[in-house]
Amino acid sequence: MTSVSNVTATKARVLFVDDEPRVLTTMRMLFRAHYEVYFAEGGPQALELLRKQPVDVVVSDQRMPGMSGIELLRAARELNPNAMRILLTGYSDLNAIIGSINEGEIFRFVNKPWSNEDLSTTVARAVTAARVSAAATARSSDEAVTAPPAGPLPAVLVMDDDERVPPQIQAILGKEFRVFGATTMSEAVDLLEREHIGVVISDTRVQDHPVVNLIGTLKQHHPELVSVILTERADAGAAIELINQGQIYRFITKPIVDNACKITVNSALKQHERLSHSPELHQRYEVAQTAEPPPPTSGSGRLLDRIRSLRSWVTRRA
Q1: What's the pLDDT tens digit per position in 293-311?
Q2: Which CATH architecture best describes the domain 11-142?
């Protein structure tokens, strides 16, 4: 069996990809003392390297000639699934952001110009998560797979101002799934307290309030919960926050496409079960540290406190 200590004994390997040589020079100076570093001036060169040398973290620019960062990280995920992926970008393109999470499962989205301290912290957290998940993967291949606990399948919670959306998703998924709807955050927390929820599907705003704090608090205190965002608003800033601070699993664009929605929710439920059975993987989906939040309002503060005090359904089923 492979232990975490054995996996972390060797120096971590980090690949940096950018078509600007000066950026790679900066990365070399910043990280060579801490990691075994590799460099590529574009996607094809990076993939050629990955075919020969697995790494723990891939840090890629988005805008590169020939192959975008998203295209590279999607291919890198196939070649090296345990590696953590970080996307650097100097512009705010909503389609690129959505693609980064749906196709490449990005750990963090880092805007250019970055703070060296923040980038160093992000890479260090990614390295830790990669090493822990690699150990978990090695362990699961050595050990017999146990059957999931008996009981009802986890349900899907849909938060949306439009009351027609939960029934629409119920119809898409079929009767074998349990879907609950909430038009306010308070209703959503009520359901989380009562029901075994595995996946939360939410619009970016509910009752005109952004959901990032609620989603982020859920992920921080209940990392086995998997969140999917419904979006039709071209708000790149909100999408970046949801990736970094909420570790969103996938985005679904409105109007909802039936087949794509069903595939996404099925995948999210499998991810919930995976995280429930392998707590060591939680670091892989750790939310970003944020500045000290403002004093809570009377309503939102109480809701976040209720989320923090929720007992995990993993504990309740034990």
Answers
A1: 443 444 566 777 888 787 6
A2: 3-Layer(aba) Sandwich (3.40)
